């Protein structure tokens, strides 16, 4: 196929996408936008397909009479009010008369739903003056990344060059708050904070912290739509009066995340003298002083892995050590790599 170009004929480049839709998460009742644009030497007609499940075909074409979705003049698709029936797979279709038809990469639209909270211990204890970490074991829905708000962790570091992922996973935004004897916990800078996993850190632990705690998880911008975790009793022991070897009061758990997601391994230990906390990846100590690294420590001993890659999968060991002894606890990180083919 050729097109006229001055005094000579040039090969027709056909049709190509300049913008393709990406996976996204939308709250029920709120709008969502799926962008699409294509270029060709001739006029391009854009249309959309949707299927709640299964392979997309021309039988899944969204018509102009659709009551819940509207195609903009630039070809992008707007979901007016998100609902469960509008979730699923979407494709943009570009057609040019005399040239052909192409379909975009498949984008999945997820309805934001509350995650589950795994059960944990019924009580935890630690000495006054030490650190204590209360886990909120939030499990991400399949194929979604989680971001906890408000977390006291520093903002994610910028990633440049080859380390930067071109495709970021769809992210479910959650608010995590904690209740103490049924009333909201008041966060205190430098002592009471919520981590990127939703855990509550008390450092240093004080006698008045003895109480019953529960974490509450809600969808972002939907504070009245929440799920509450099981009760967890905190017992405060007398401050250590003699030397004691390191003892874990919180340990990391096995995690599975999508490539590009950030994740926090919770870990805390007590002892006298106060133990130092280090982390190992597959037996090799991680340099947590490198400011350009995607790995950094949070709080009293937790590890943050920013924008996880497939090569980050493996065994992560939290090590608490002092001149008296050392203690290790290892958990696995699984990184799922998803392809975005048509």
Q: How would you describe this structure to a colleague?
A:
The chain is an all-beta fold and 342 residues long. The protein folds into 2 domains: 13-111, Sandwich (Immunoglobulin-like); 116-336, Immunoglobulin-like, CATH 2.60.40. It is built from no helices and 34 strands. The protein has strands at residues 2-5, 8-11, 15-19, 24-26, 32-34, 37-40, 45-51, 69-71, 77-79, 88-96, 100-103, 107-111, 116-117, 123-127, 132-134, 138-139, 145-149, 171-180, 183-184, 192-194, 200-202, 211-219, 222-228, 232-237, 244-250, 255-258, 263-265, 268-272, 276-281, 284-285, 295-298, 302-305, 314-321, 326-336. Strands 14, 17, 18, 19, 22, 23 and 24 form a 7-stranded mixed β-sheet that branches. Strands 4, 7, 10, 11 and 12 form a 5-stranded mixed β-sheet that branches. Strand 18 and strand 19 (183-184) form a beta hairpin. The chain is elongated. Mean pLDDT is 89; it is low at 1-11 and 159-163.
- Rg estimate, integer Å: 25 Å
CATH superfamily of the largest domain: Immunoglobulins
Structural class: mainly beta
Query: How many strands appear in the DSSP assignment?
Result: 34
Known CATH architecture of the largest domain: Sandwich
Shape: elongated
> Please, what is the average pLDDT?
89
What is the CATH level 1 assignment of the largest domain?
Answer: Mainly Beta
Question: Helical proportion?
Answer: under 10%
What separation lies between the terminal Cα atoms? 25 Å
Biggest β-sheet description: 7 strands, mixed
Number of helices: 0
CATH topology of the largest domain: Immunoglobulin-like
The percent range for strand residues is: over 45%
Question: Uncertain spans, ≥5 residues at pLDDT below 50?
Answer: 1-11, 159-163
